[in-house]
Amino acid sequence: MTTPSSTASAPAPVPAKSDAAARPDFDDNRTTSARARVQQLLHANPTLGPLAVLVLAVIAFTVSNPRFFSAPNLSLVLAQVTVIAVLALGQTLIILTAGIDLSVGAIAVFSSILMASLAVKAGLPGPAALVAGLVLGTAMGALNGFLVTRIKLPPFIVTLGTLTIFFSLNSVVSNSETIRGADMPGLLTWTGTAIPIGGFRLTYGSIIMLLLFALVLFALRNTAWGRHVYATGDDGEAARLAGIRTSRVLLSVYTVAGALYAVGAWILIGRLASASPNVGTDYNLDSITAVVLGGASLFGGRGGVLGTLIGALIVGVFRNGLQLAGVEVVWQGFAIGLLVLVAVSLDQWIRKVKA
Amino acid sequence: MTTPSSTASAPAPVPAKSDAAARPDFDDNRTTSARARVQQLLHANPTLGPLAVLVLAVIAFTVSNPRFFSAPNLSLVLAQVTVIAVLALGQTLIILTAGIDLSVGAIAVFSSILMASLAVKAGLPGPAALVAGLVLGTAMGALNGFLVTRIKLPPFIVTLGTLTIFFSLNSVVSNSETIRGADMPGLLTWTGTAIPIGGFRLTYGSIIMLLLFALVLFALRNTAWGRHVYATGDDGEAARLAGIRTSRVLLSVYTVAGALYAVGAWILIGRLASASPNVGTDYNLDSITAVVLGGASLFGGRGGVLGTLIGALIVGVFRNGLQLAGVEVVWQGFAIGLLVLVAVSLDQWIRKVKA
Amino acid sequence: STPQSSASGGKPIVGLITKTDTNPFFVKMKQGAQDAAGQQGVDLQSFAGKQDGDNEAQVQAIENLISAGAKGFLITPNDSKAIVPSIDKARQAGMVVIALDTPTDPASAVDATYATDNYRAGLLIGQWAKAKFTKEGKQARIALLDLNANQISVDVQRDQGFLEGFGVDVKDKAKIGDEADPRIAGHDVTDGAEDGGRTAMENLLQKDPSINLVYTINEPAAAGAFQALKAAGKEKDVTIVSVDGGCPGVNNVGSGVIGATSMQFPLKMASMGVEAITKFAKDGTKPAASAGKDFVDTGVQLITDQPQDGVEAKDSTWAKQNCWG
Amino acid sequence: MTAPETTQEHGSPGPTAPVLQAKGLIKRYGRVVALGGSDLELYPGEILAVIGDNGAGKSSLIKALSGALVPDEGEIHLDGQRVRFGNPMDARKAGIETVYQTLAVAPGLDIADNLFLGREQRRPGLLGSVLRMLDHKHMRSEARRHMNELGVATLQNIGQPVESLSGGQRQAVAVARAAAFGSRVVILDEPTAALGVKEGNRVLQLIREVRDRGLPVILISHNMPHVFEVADRIHIQRLGRRATVITPRSHSMAEAVAIMTGAVPPPPAVA
Amino acid sequence: MTAPETTQEHGSPGPTAPVLQAKGLIKRYGRVVALGGSDLELYPGEILAVIGDNGAGKSSLIKALSGALVPDEGEIHLDGQRVRFGNPMDARKAGIETVYQTLAVAPGLDIADNLFLGREQRRPGLLGSVLRMLDHKHMRSEARRHMNELGVATLQNIGQPVESLSGGQRQAVAVARAAAFGSRVVILDEPTAALGVKEGNRVLQLIREVRDRGLPVILISHNMPHVFEVADRIHIQRLGRRATVITPRSHSMAEAVAIMTGAVPPPPAVA
Ligand SMILES: Nc1ncnc2c1ncn2[C@@H]1O[C@H](COP(=O)(O)OP(=O)(O)OP(=O)(O)O)[C@@H](O)[C@H]1O
Ligand SMILES: Nc1ncnc2c1ncn2[C@@H]1O[C@H](COP(=O)(O)OP(=O)(O)OP(=O)(O)O)[C@@H](O)[C@H]1O
Ligand SMILES: [Mg+2]
Ligand SMILES: [Mg+2]
């Protein structure tokens, strides 16, 4: 087999020893400078950037108004971001697959109306109304997924279409009327109940939110499904060639997102102690903002849910902090815009260190 | 040089004749079936899909209400889409570079307020106010471009930030007050003037819009800048390695988009015969919708301005046609959502033929 | 409304253009108009802006109505000034135009205006609150939960009316937030919905926990604010006032969530409007404004279960029979 | 290296039926004809090389066999049964494992994740069966082993995302994946193009090992010495069709190249 | 093919100063060291081959020379002047033209657009000077000529987007671009990896032609016969550093491979 011509291009494999001998040069555990260690840390934890921004914002607002860093106010900020955080969690999954969901607000609000209507108007018992609402919300997410994977429409278009469809069904079902929490079974508004922990008041809604984040974090990091979500978003064609059923992954992601939005709807009812058809117009932009502030890429495959949680908190902290700092309403928009830009610049700058 | 070992892997180049002899098999001009010719046509003209959707929509609405296809109504549709079309033109450029612009509405509205305020409140003569407004709008676009290219922030975040900043400056400058067209110099409202052509009434604004589309179409197709825009959006890193100054291209694109939005502002003043600080909240979604309906990819590098024009017309035709067909307001949202989905499915289906 | 009827011109077409199609107030207004249209035998075509302040959608609606050959239309202008040129066009085309709920600027741009006096609506709840606080001998700390940052007319009129009624120097009557009265703890915006109301109230309470009087732009915002107060354990010590008179709001007055609210009458506005246009379509009579005012006041009624001296009011039992949705 | 005599056994298709067979595959893209009626037969236990000029349709041919593209016309038979692969997963389920020329790796995932993509290993016990938890540690150490097997010893960090690997390292990841998991047929499209001399030879060795495990292999390569070193038969693709089939014994490299480029007319197929 | 004696002239660095010189380049990515203090000299009119194992840092080295990456430490000198390339455009302006291993083509643009990317040709006359209109026709015919020159004759449609080309066709586009436009130095990172035998040989020929035009060439390749066929000197990269420099006359292929893989210690650099 060893012909003269093949020798030229294919010498016998060299002894492996020589590689090992050369290894010390490239040892993984060589002593590193402090700067290099910071770099490594940032490299391994891309959420540190947003986290630094969050911490800086908290410090700045505390300086401007010490009341900001009080237990009651911090519980407030947590309660204020809970709904958006849950919605942004679903949005994160979709953005990880290089999609985008404009129907998040519509699904959440419509689900809350469905839960409340089934309980109050159709007279279903609380648990039944809740489950029905969760199932219907999940089905709305699945419809998005179906249109994305079967009809192969771009997610932007699909969710733009279903956004208007769900909102208009929402108007029809609710007749644009608010249903009061006082008229609903207690289960539906239970999520708004708070447990006092010292001066801190933690709502059941927030606890559910934190559990959902832990669950999705686990699934993304530690299950095959999580790997497939990243692979699909990273390079869908490559993932398909590698034998991932990308359509199935996408369908599951949109469905799970729908389920998360429906849980968000439940938390929303608790928070407002009512189901109102007219809330949620900002949920799309707010949830996407939280995801992007958390460091995820709209091109898919990069990012994580911890970043999203931090992103949602950043927005909540800004909104609350600016009000406490006594900034005028007209200038609050200006300040939030500026802060978003500064926050992400800072994050970018922190990341640069590692490159 | 010709050693024995190199012969094996490198035989002398074969006479070119043999390739030529084999060519007939693969001749470009072989007789093709009708189906193949349709495929080729669609392949070469990706705008045919959206165009087919537009034509079908026009036919359907005409059947449902013959008044739809009357000259006055068609002029109306054109006038109604003019502003969005111009804004979508700028948005197209940005989306071609794999960006997105959420500040389009804010820039357009703020520019219109600036033009009107400079003329009415600061007492500038019409041409000076117009030019100043155009320059300021362009500067706002350039600011986006600066943040995207220098600070290297994601376009979504940049324009989200400037969106809120511009809108809040807009409130401050306008004092939230509408300025009436009657108080302005005639030049500012001139774009709303219509020339009757038979029963058709073509506004100067629409003419400007069509000219801008022709101009950008030319630039994208026939200038080096156009090639660079596509290359940058297609694969920014590859374009950079190929020696394109992608930052410069991006900066130029955001600046040109700002200029287009400012012209859109001028047309907007003419159309509404006033400068109102509160319009334009939907311009972001509407302009992106027009671009996507026109077949461009949000991932950059694919699409064109003709598609955008058709996309804008599709939205305008749907809105107007549904109303004329007597569809109820609550159900119009539903119908538009459904139509958007059907339209893009149809386009997708038409494209599939060619693959 | 079938396409044939509008195309063939069988029944006269009457348009209704509301600010949005989600606010229950406008939903009710539309229902009132539809009922009236059914009785009067006209074809009602309705339109709406996409959100408060959306002028362009209303301009398009007017254009489409002109194109459809309508006899006239009712409009709740999103931008009182900016809509005027389009209304002029419609009137030049021979249509009769009636402003509902919100007057145009100038008011003479339309043939008639049937509206709630929003300033008066604010004034009434302001006066009521003043009487209550005076009687109880309390010093007020006021939070104002407005609509949005755009200073649109309803928002401004209700806010400034309330402050005037409470005896605060409002400085520029056309501008929210320029007051210097120390009793004012702060302003925030709510988008007129529950979630906005709750968040705004929470943040203002953090800023100033001694707030004890809350003005809200409408009843959904009031409901949200109440949840914030309840969570902070302050719902007993704080008085909420609002404007609207929708059924959930009236129920909230009954259950003590809202101290007082100013009820408006959208159904009446709508039916009066449709009748006026039908009359014009039949015999060409144009409606006229009521003497003294540049609009036909469809009335405001203060609703409260804690009546105060010197402020005429009805209770929630009456209101439950008269609420609009 | 395997002894020359073993090759003799494998080379002969003889009376045995082909494992994988393509008949008259046609694939057009608009005016472009990628496959103009291409055939292929792969017999049990053989290494079939596919050679041809750039653009001859080699990649298109194997993409059709692995489900990555659906041909416009033509048939594919696996073990004599007609099969239709709608997507790569279908072919993979049937045991056909492929390294594509474009590698098909997920750039943001690390080496271990890519190696086990779609075949992740779970933790033993309840953690794995109930929580479906992945065994990251095991997968990482396996990944390191596979990469070392290919001689890619310069790899400094097994947790590096694949996009930051050197060209050859990336290719090694794709090859290791196919070699580890193929169960019926292994297809390799230019697996050594970016590899160094040592790494390339390891891959050749691996191919022989796979064949010796009884799996037939299809190897596309422009590297004639490599092809002549390992192939049992050589399928020559030209202008979207199979021109002929030769063996390393029947023809020299120079002859093969001449047929491939059209310098000489293709001889009748061997065997 | 060029006559052997011309090679003699080019091979000798002698007293002439290097055109392009790298001194102690270091590039780290987190814990990964891509370049650990690498040097390089390129002399006028020579073909310098760079060989090395996968992951040895060859691509990183030439990326530093072409501005595609900014080294953490180290210096680059062009004609004796220290230069700092912040981006590829800087290097390109200085006349350094590069074919990257990843090709760096715009997938959605067609062949002509890619060939002329950043160097588009305008129409003659006012159309070009005032309207800045591109001369599509001319660029297309030039593109066809360049591709034919590389022997890529299977190309059916010159207007095809590059993403739909076969692997080799795509590589040919990148090579044609560099060869056509280099003015001071041409760098080629694995230009023949995906090319067929014929096409690969044409590229070698092209490299010689470029050298004969007086431009020095840096050629990275894993193909030892190719390297030994055209190189004047051979830079051996190992573990992020230059191990040594040899010439095709001073060492055999087997020796070069042994040095490259670390089987034998590197000899002192030739010349
Ligand atoms: N998606 C596509 N659209 C249009 N043409 C295509 C597409 N895919 C392949 N082709 C064309 O089909 C022909 C065959 O391509 P293929 O990739 O099969 O060649 P190959 O033999 O693998 O070449 P190489 O050795 O360069 O990899 C080429 O001319 C190519 O341009
Ligand atoms: N962006 C990056 N992030 C992390 N590591 C990197 C990055 N780029 C390169 N490396 C590492 O640097 C080392 C050198 O890579 P380089 O691409 O220069 O090798 P090469 O010699 O060109 O190899 P090949 O022959 O396989 O192309 C490799 O170990 C690679 O994993
Ligand atoms: Mg190929
Ligand atoms: Mg390399």
Automatic annotation (TrEMBL), chains A, B:
Compositional bias annotation for Low complexity: 1-19
* Entry keyword annotation includes Cell inner membrane: yes
In this chain, the stretch annotated as Disordered covers 1-29
Q: How does it sit in the membrane?
A: Multi-pass membrane protein
Pfam families reported for this sequence:
BPD_transp_2 (PF02653)
Please state where this protein is localized.
Cell membrane
Which keywords does UniProt give here?
A: Cell inner membrane, Cell membrane, Membrane, Transmembrane, Transmembrane helix, Transport
Protein name according to UniProt: ABC transporter permease
Primary localisation category: membrane
The answer, when asked if Ligase is one of the entry's keywords, is no
Sequence intervals crossing the membrane: 47-64, 76-96, 102-120, 127-147, 153-173, 194-220, 249-269, 290-318, 330-350
According to its record, what are the GO cellular component terms?
plasma membrane
- What are the protein's GO molecular function terms? transmembrane transporter activity
Q: Where is the signal peptide?
A: none
From TrEMBL, chains D, E:
In which domain of life is the source organism classified?
Bacteria
The keyword Cell division is assigned to this record: no
Q: Which GO terms describe its molecular function?
A: ATP binding; ATP hydrolysis activity
State whether keyword Nucleotide-binding applies: yes
Keywords recorded for this protein, A-Z: ATP-binding, Nucleotide-binding
Q: Which residues form the ABC transporter domain?
A: 20-264
Known PROSITE patterns for this protein?
ABC_TRANSPORTER_1, ABC_TRANSPORTER_2
**What Gene3D superfamilies has UniProt attached to this entry?**
P-loop containing nucleotide triphosphate hydrolases
Q: What's this protein's name?
A: Sugar ABC transporter ATP-binding protein
Q: Which organism is it from?
A: Actinoplanes cyaneus
Highest classification ranks of the organism: Bacteria, Bacillati, Actinomycetota, Actinomycetes, Micromonosporales
